[in-house]
Design goal:
The chain is about 20% helix and about 40% strand. With about 150 residues, it is an alpha+beta fold.
Length: about 150
Amino acid sequence: MLRSPKLAAIAVVIRTDTVLLVKRRNPPDEGLWGFPGGHVELGETAKEAAVRELREETEVIAKPLDYITNLDVISKDAEGKIAHHFLLVAVLCEYISGEPNAGDDVNDAKWQPLADIMSNAILCSKNVDVVINMASHAKAGQIYDHGRGEK
């Protein structure tokens, strides 16, 4: 029985005109492309979790830069009861090294063209395009300072 939301972190890694995505093996987004990520462990920051999960799921190494946004992912079963509830912390990461190789709980990992995602040519988890837009603004220096609400 689900008692509370689970905290998870996702790694958003953009290289030129591509983004690193994984094809999920397990529900709730089984078969869909999304950002590498997973549960935040006790004593671990969301930034640390994002780069750890990135490495576990893709073998790609990255450096966490900044928080982008938070997303609630809530899905219900056939009876209308909550089956999954995740609070996802999106972390902008800078690529360091490695080539995508599917590991852990994913079926595939690859650099996907941004244009294909934005045109819905690839079946993605909800809000992947929204997070990419936010990450693009963050990379361009347009993210707000979290403490003061200023640019």
